[in-house]
Amino acid sequence: MNWMELDQEYIMPTYNRLPITVDKAEGNYLIDESGKRYLDLFGGLAVNVLGHSHPHLMETLHQQSSKFLHVSNFFLNKPAITLAHRLIEHSVKGKVYFGNSGAEAAEGAVKLIHKWSKQQSEEKSGVAVLKNSFHGRTLGVIRMTRQPGIYQDFPAADFPVYEAEAEDIASLENIFNEKQPAALLMEPVLGSGGIMPLSSDFLQKAEALCRRYNVLFCMDEIQTGMGRTGELFAYQRAQVTPDIILFAKGIGGGLPLGGFIARSGLDGMFQPGDHGTTFGPSPLSAALGNAVLDVLMEQGGLEEGRENAEYLWKQLESLQQETGAIQDIRGAGMMLGIVLDADAKEVKNIQQRLLQRGFMINITQGTIIRLLPPLTLNKEETDAFVAALKGEIAREEV
Ligand SMILES: Cc1ncc(COP(=O)(O)O)c(C=O)c1O
């Protein structure tokens, strides 16, 4: 069976697929139909924070699925209530809204922001975001994804979106002065925008500015959350306190789950009928969310992830000194961007050859190697990857 051909025939080509048919995944490895194993540094694009088939997640899945798969949002959902309580205990006091994806998290947050802004004044409206941000692709939020070629050809939802420069507090203040946005939404590390971490200084100044201008300070933790940068949420590294925190990707342990936390004072904005979705959340996804938190917050997963990330950074920084071919390594924790002295074709070649050698990496913005490994990536796996990368960089003569 040629799955690549069938994929091209029957599925819309919204992604450039790699020619791998994953048959199975275990630990930090993907296994294709021929039995070939690939170290998964792609991490399901930041979903698989604990790798694949983690025993605690599999056991939880088994237990919950043997009870029921779905009921309805008109009944109490124990896994969801427990998860919401735990998320709040580990972030800000308030309430949680659950949907199924990152884009839905952003959509819901925008609706809440809109309701809040109407309570403030008729003039207050819209959201300020950063250049190169990514907040989803559905029509309601696509304009908040400020990357070339993503939003330009599609109709705009009728709330204003303002674009500021990352790390440039003056550009933010200009927007706050000249317009009246209701909220500022930022990724603490811009992910698909090229792994650009925001400094604690910028985050703190942005928060102070939001307080001064009565603008909601909102963090998109969809890619950075669930321990990826060393804390449960990346904003916690900067000691700021968001009004709204978006989550998705890693929280569902591999199942679709997204949503947001709104701090007290905002948590009464939605009334029955204001928002909702049939599966928000699936009890199965919520049960897995609890299992992810068990591992991260109670079984040492967060600390293990920090140690593993520290080792990965150290090895990559040594490689940078050794070869001189790596221009920059940036990001935080298990969210890394490696900038090579190479063009898009050369970086693609490196990706292809690493794939042949059994290492799965992602490329963003054409030339930036994006690593989103599981927090469970161990020293031997890191050593094997860094050695392979070294060989491929030398071969491409970057
Ligand atoms: C920071 C961020 N926000 C929002 C999204 C959208 O999430 P989803 O693809 O689940 O709709 C993504 C997805 O990559 C993301 O990285």
TrEMBL record:
The record's GO molecular-function terms, alphabetically, read: identical protein binding; pyridoxal phosphate binding; transaminase activity
Q: Which cofactor does it need?
A: pyridoxal 5'-phosphate
The similarity comment for this entry is: Belongs to the class-III pyridoxal-phosphate-dependent aminotransferase family.
**What PROSITE patterns does this protein's entry cite?**
AA_TRANSFER_CLASS_3 (PS00600)
Q: Which domain of life is it from?
A: Bacteria
Q: What's the protein called, per UniProt?
A: Acetylornithine aminotransferase
Key words of the record: Aminotransferase, Pyridoxal phosphate, Transferase
Keyword Transferase appears in the UniProt entry: yes
Q: Which residues form the signal peptide?
A: none
Q: Which residues cross the membrane?
A: none
